[in-house]
Amino acid sequence: MFENFVLEMVETEGGPIRLRHGGSGPPLLLIHGHPRSHMTWGHVADLLSADFRIVCPDLPGFGRSYIPRDDPESRFSSKRAKASALVEVMERLGHHSFFVAGHDRGSLVAFRMAMDHPDLVRKLITVDGLPVIEHLERADWKFARDWYHWFFFAQPEKPERAILADPMAWYSALRPDEMGREAYDELVSLIHDPAVVHGMVEDYRAGIRIDHRHDREDREAGRKVRCPMLCLWSLDDDLEQIYGDPVAIWKPWADNVGGSGIKSGHHVAEENPAALAAAFKAFL
User: Fold this and answer.
1) Which residue from 63, 144, 162, 278 puts its CA 20 to 30 A from 155's CA?
2) In the chain, which ranges are E strands?
């Protein structure tokens, strides 16, 4: 994976961000979800590197990037703060406008980036995600049954203690045959790191504490994603089953949005990278 890519740490105001970048063409920022690092994009990055300059960072709080400092409202782990940090990264790499795609928690950061930095984001792709406020306002018993971790992770201290008591049991779905051995071995190391576990959990606390307020403020002000947007979701995951048509939910948030499902489980960049890369390339 990541053939001919450069691995480096880029300093930002918040701290260092680890990333890989390579390829040629217009810049495309790929943002991973929970509990992954940038390594989840390896096969997709290789498939797209002939057409795009790919930038794959570890989100702050994840991987080997900086852990945001604590705050009663989790402001430094908010999607707004993380979007700002990644914009700073792109500027330091010389990319003053770019495409952005995010998966899972990364889709929330990509969405916030398009909302807060409309002059920089040329096109937006979200994969397996909706605005935080839409998740919360639509939560029902199916959400509580299948996505209970959103609310468990919002609690103080207990989530970290539960995960770190047996990380491999908590993340029992990890599969080296899908992820690749290097990505798998690194992720096993990461989920045993108390600082990283705390950083990942804080991402969820920010959703419950502050991210939904940012969404509400935008909705009340009538602000929308101005650039063209593509919404994708994994057909063998449960986003569509819980919420209905994701494109219909996104339409009030964007001036120009379309989308479709991809045959895959939740971690589509690992399970069906060819279909995901093809969808990205067709849209971009």
Assistant:
1) 63
2) 6-11, 16-23, 27-31, 53-57, 98-103, 121-127, 229-234, 257-262
Let me know if residue 101 belongs to a domain.
yes
Query: Omega into 35 within 30° of 0, i.e. cis?
Result: yes
Positive or negative torsion for Cα 244, 248, 253, 257: positive
- Three-state secondary-structure class, residue 110: helix
> Which amino acid, residue 36?
R
Query: In the structure encoding, which two tokens stand for residue 253, read together?
Result: 């948030």
Residue 8 is encoded by which pair of tokens? 């480096």
Give the domain range for residue 79.
6-283
CB 105 within 8 A of CB 128: no
Dump pLDDT digits (tens) for 36-72: 999 999 999 999 999 999 999 999 999 999 999 999 9
Mean pLDDT on 245-262: 97
Distance CA 55, CA 21 (A): 4
> In the chain, how many domains are there?
1
Catalytic residue selected from 104, 203, 215, 218:
104
State how far the Cα of 6 lies from the Cα of 20, in Å rounded to an integer. 5
Catalytic residue among 95, 214, 266, 267: 266
Q: Is the separation of the CB atoms in 226 and 118 below 8 Å?
A: yes
Assess whether 104 carries a catalytic annotation.
Answer: yes
Overall size of the chain counted in residues: 284
Is 82 inside any structural domain? Answer: yes
198 CB neighbour count, 10 Å cutoff: 20
Kindly state whether residue 1 falls inside one of the protein's structural domains: no
d(CA 57, CA 68) in angstroms, rounded, equals 15
Domain CATH code at residue 159: 3.40.50.1820
Give pLDDT, residue 161. 97
Specify whether 71 is catalytic.
no
Residue position matching structure tokens 């063998």 = 236
